[in-house]
């Protein structure tokens, strides 16, 4: 090679070396650094833990196991949902397998695109044959967006119900909120969370560091009070062995399965670590660490909360049919008295308030990433990063609008609103399952492990994760009560079906002509420098890929 040919490459390598290590890794994936990396390992753990908001999430959804098996479902259903485990290669602990697979993917490809980027990378037939990759990516992204928007809606709707339950307790039942009042407060919380989500990343990281302390303190206080204050408690035999299936109408086995929705709804926020990977330092290590530790912490804390509540609830009928509208506050009121319950329930409200803000932040990054690759209507608008806050403010408010529209389902029926809980779990776990399936099948030989990987266990763990995901998604599409009527129908299948149909028709009619997966946003000279750097440090074939933003042409890194 002549000196004239070597000089551009040297300049390209020099420009590449100016990038920090995290930006270099992002450049290797084809994206330029657009966010400030204000999150570290601790704040990312705080973010993931706050996304799951275990105290408030369990309190909001405890009615599902209570009405589908009672004590046995409350205590053992939670553990069942978190018990599909395998030992990892470098850590000899047990952990929720879907989270374990997601940690491996996040370590390999730490980008805001997250799930659908993983699916794109791992679903290609070869560097020059995209195969079904665009369609796989398209549906992964759409169900992920819908699931996350539904998650925000379900969090803020339950937050609204919590506030009105507190007011009802203050007024000794004199106040009964109307649907219009509930909808108005719901919209107000969405706007508040939109404002918080629009703040600079540095402030968001600080808020989450404070929030995790509040969450931990509130969880400990509630658990201690539920154990210590009740004058009457259930026996251990009742708590661990009593099965009460008098409410669902399903047989005992399937009722137990449906009761696990509270665990699945709570344990679906850890994927947010992937969504803010581009805002975290050392994301390839911090992301997996945050996923694993936050899931373990949430599983333990959630089980202790449920165990305390099960010992304390002495009347299932009274709790499920409470005038407060939420069983958990009735359990507190009966066990701890009015003054203590007012304080405890306010802690639950505060936890849910911050959980909602975390969910809006994570969802806005999902919207931003898909829009950056041109996948949503008016994508150019939603992919803008504000120059002052360096956050995707437009994507934040699109999230607020989408969640607000889901709240309008209440004008149809309460059952339609209940479907939001279902839709969140179903959509997010489908989005988790697709890249995991690609990882253990067509993408098995294309996968490039990061600092955290599962080694020989990947295929086994991934297979169990996929089987569990399919099983739980199909189960949660069934109605929760029998006989089925218009008032207890599970409308999640209708809403999800409508979204999938819309996305499918759009792809078939138009999007298939131009949507080819993730787009390259980094300059070609930097991307070439990454290729030169990679080829100088490894003799293995580089199977990375990216797409040119302007003409959508497929580019391989030779």
From TrEMBL:
The keyword Iron-sulfur does not apply. It comes from the Eukaryota. InterPro entries: AA/rel_permease1. Gene3D superfamilies: Amino acid/polyamine transporter I (1.20.1740.10). Keywords: Membrane, Transmembrane, Transmembrane helix, Transport. One of its GO terms (molecular function) is transmembrane transporter activity. It holds the Pfam family AA_permease_2. It is found in: Membrane. It is a multi-pass membrane protein. The chain crosses the membrane at residues 42-64, 93-118, 130-151, 157-176, 183-204, 210-229, 291-313, 342-370, 391-413, 419-442, 454-478, 490-509. One of its GO terms (cellular component) is membrane. This is Amino acid transporter. It comes from Circinella minor. The lineage of its organism: Eukaryota, Fungi, Fungi incertae sedis, Mucoromycota, Mucoromycotina.
């Amino acid at each position: 090679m002549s000196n004239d040919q070597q000089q551009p490459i040297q300049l390209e390598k020099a420009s590449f070396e100016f990038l920090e290590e995290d930006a270099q890794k992002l450049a290797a994936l084809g994206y330029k650094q657009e966010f400030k990396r204000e999150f570290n390992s601790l704040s990312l753990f705080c973010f993931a833990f706050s996304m799951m908001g275990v105290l408030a999430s369990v309190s909001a959804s405890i009615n599902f196991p209570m009405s589908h098996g009672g004590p046995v479902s409350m205590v053992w259903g939670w553990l069942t949902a978190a018990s599909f485990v395998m030992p990892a290669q470098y850590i000899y602990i047990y952990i929720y397998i879907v989270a374990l697979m997601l940690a491996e993917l996040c370590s390999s490809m730490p980008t805001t695109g997250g799930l659908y980027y993983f699916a794109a990378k791992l679903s290609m037939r070869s560097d020059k044959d995209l195969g079904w990759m665009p369609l796989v990516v398209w549906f992964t992204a759409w169900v992920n967006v819908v699931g996350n928007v539904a998650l925000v809606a379900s969090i803020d709707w339950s937050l609204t119900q919590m506030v009105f339950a507190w007011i009802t307790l203050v007024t000794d039942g004199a106040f009964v909120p109307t649907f219009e009042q509930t909808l108005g407060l719901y919209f107000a919380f969405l706007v508040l969370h939109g404002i918080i989500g629009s703040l600079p990343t540095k402030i968001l990281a600080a808020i989450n560091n404070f929030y995790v302390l509040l969450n931990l303190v509130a969880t400990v206080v509630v658990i201690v009070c539920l154990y210590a204050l009740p004058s009457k408690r259930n026996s251990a035999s009742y708590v661990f062995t009593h099965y009460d299936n008098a409410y669902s109408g399903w047989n005992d086995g399937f009722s137990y399965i449906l009761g696990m929705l509270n665990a699945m709804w709570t344990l679906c926020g850890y994927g947010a670590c992937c969504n803010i990977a581009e805002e975290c330092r050392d994301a390839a290590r911090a992301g997996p660490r945050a996923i694993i530790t936050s899931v373990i912490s949430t599983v333990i804390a959630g089980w202790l909360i449920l165990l305390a509540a099960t010992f304390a609830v002495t009347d299932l009928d009274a709790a499920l049919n409470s005038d407060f509208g939420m069983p958990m506050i009735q359990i507190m009121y009966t066990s701890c008295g009015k003054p203590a319950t007012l304080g405890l329930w306010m802690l639950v409200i505060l936890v849910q308030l911050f959980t909602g803000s975390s969910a809006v932040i994570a969802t806005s990054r999902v919207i931003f990433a898909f829009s950056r690759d041109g996948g949503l209507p008016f994508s150019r608008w939603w992919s803008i990063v504000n120059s002052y806050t360096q956050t995707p403010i437009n994507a934040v408010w699109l999230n607020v609008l989408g969640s607000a529209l889901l709240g309008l389902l209440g004008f149809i029926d309460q059952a339609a609103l209940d479907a939001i809980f279902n839709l969140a779990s179903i959509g997010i776990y489908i989005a988790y399952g697709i890249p995991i399936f690609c990882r253990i099948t067509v993408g098995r030989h294309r996968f490039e492990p990061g600092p955290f990987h599962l080694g020989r266990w990947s295929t086994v763990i991934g297979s169990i994760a996929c089987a569990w995901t399919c099983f739980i998604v199909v189960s949660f599409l069934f109605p929760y009560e029998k006989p089925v009527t218009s008032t207890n129908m599970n409308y999640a299948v209708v809403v999800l079906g409508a979204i999938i149909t819309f996305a499918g028709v759009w792809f078939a009619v138009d999007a298939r002509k131009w949507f080819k997966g993730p787009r390259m946003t980094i300059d070609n000279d930097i991307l070439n420098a990454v290729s030169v750097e990679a080829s100088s440090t490894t003799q293995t074939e580089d199977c990375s890929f990216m797409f040119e933003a302007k003409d959508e042409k497929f580019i391989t890194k030779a």
